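From the methods appendix. Each design record in this collection lists the tokenized structure first, followed by the designed amino acid sequence. Records were kept in a plain field format so they could be parsed without special tools. The example shown here is representative of the layout used throughout.

RECORD:
FOLD TOKENS (164 positions):
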């Protein structure tokens, strides 16, 4: 389990359930950037979804805090029916005002360090097919895209986590 990491005035730590409103707000700001017509109203109760992620005993939600403000977050766990050495990154968001300032890279490095410490060998994620910026970020971090199914809304990517 990750302990608070302090780097360049940034703290990377586990999100507290009391921070739910901050998580939901950051998630909405980040998602809005890759939906040119606005966030889809698909009926998802994001507050409830994040509450579930924050309270799952088998999952983790990490955040990056700078100057008392949450500027990045990542949610991950072992997917159901997956090998124990596999982890899935379900959510990864950086406040758009903080893009290209190292927040995402620092958060990603903290996730990878925790996954390796937990004995994970493979990480998976799905990213929206129109979110080219995020796809580029993940590729720079070493993630490899899998073939896209025709009509799919998400691209699946995989990261090998060899031991150090």
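DESIGN:
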């Amino acid at each position: 389990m990750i302990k608070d990491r302090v780097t360049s005035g940034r703290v990377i730590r586990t999100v507290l359930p009391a921070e739910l409103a901050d998580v939901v707000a950051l998630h909405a700001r980040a998602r809005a950037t890759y939906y040119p017509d606005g966030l889809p109203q698909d009926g998802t109760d994001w507050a409830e979804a994040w509450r579930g992620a924050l309270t799952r005993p088998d999952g983790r939600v990490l955040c990056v805090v700078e100057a008392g403000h949450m500027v990045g977050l990542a949610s991950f766990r072992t997917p159901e029916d997956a090998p124990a050495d596999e982890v899935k990154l379900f959510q990864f968001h950086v406040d758009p005002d903080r893009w290209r300032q190292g927040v995402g890279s620092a958060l990603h490095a903290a996730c990878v360090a925790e996954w390796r410490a937990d004995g994970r060998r493979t990480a998976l994620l799905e990213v929206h097919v129109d979110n080219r910026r995020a796809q580029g970020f993940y590729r720079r971090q070493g993630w490899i895209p899998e073939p896209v199914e025709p009509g799919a809304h998400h691209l699946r990517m995989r990261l090998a986590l060899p031991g150090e």
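APPENDIX NOTE: The longest strand covers residues 69-77.
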